[in-house]
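User: Just a sanity check before I run the rest of the batch. Below are the structure tokens for the first item. I only need the designed sequence back.
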């Protein structure tokens, strides 16, 4: 069971998806899973996601466009990690974000189950390894 389940809802995110998934793969904290929830995309979102072969990346296709709330709830139900992090396909994270959180802030105490996380993961800045970031394109 991974420590962190990253939930990434994606609807027509082909343009940004590879960089967002790459930022998760670049994390220096190794104990995570990425649930990429394809919410009925009509572009190449699914094809981009299938290019990533890391077993920690799981592609889940919704049966159609369920919308953000239902997609996030579905991701919570599928998450196997003790903690949840949410990442939009239009954003990237620092490679050491979760390692720094684990080492300096400690994970928030929580009862078993992925729905108990009350703090959002925040970018902690550079960690001796610059990583490009950009503003959200919502």
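Assistant: Here's the designed sequence for the first item:
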């Amino acid at each position: 069971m991974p420590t962190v389940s990253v939930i990434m809802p994606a609807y027509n995110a082909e343009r940004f998806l590879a960089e967002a998934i790459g930022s998760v793969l670049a994390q220096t904290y190794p104990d995570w899973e990425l649930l990429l929830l394809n919410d009925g995309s009509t572009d190449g979102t699914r094809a981009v996601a299938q290019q990533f072969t890391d077993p920690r990346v799981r592609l889940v296709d919704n049966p159609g466009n369920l919308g953000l709330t239902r997609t996030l709830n579905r991701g919570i139900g599928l998450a196997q990690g003790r903690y949840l992090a949410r990442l939009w396909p239009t954003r990237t994270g620092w490679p050491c974000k979760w390692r720094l959180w684990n080492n300096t802030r400690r994970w928030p105490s929580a009862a078993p189950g992925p729905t108990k996380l009350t703090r959002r993961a925040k970018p902690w800045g550079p960690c001796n390894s610059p990583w490009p970031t950009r503003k959200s394109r919502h």
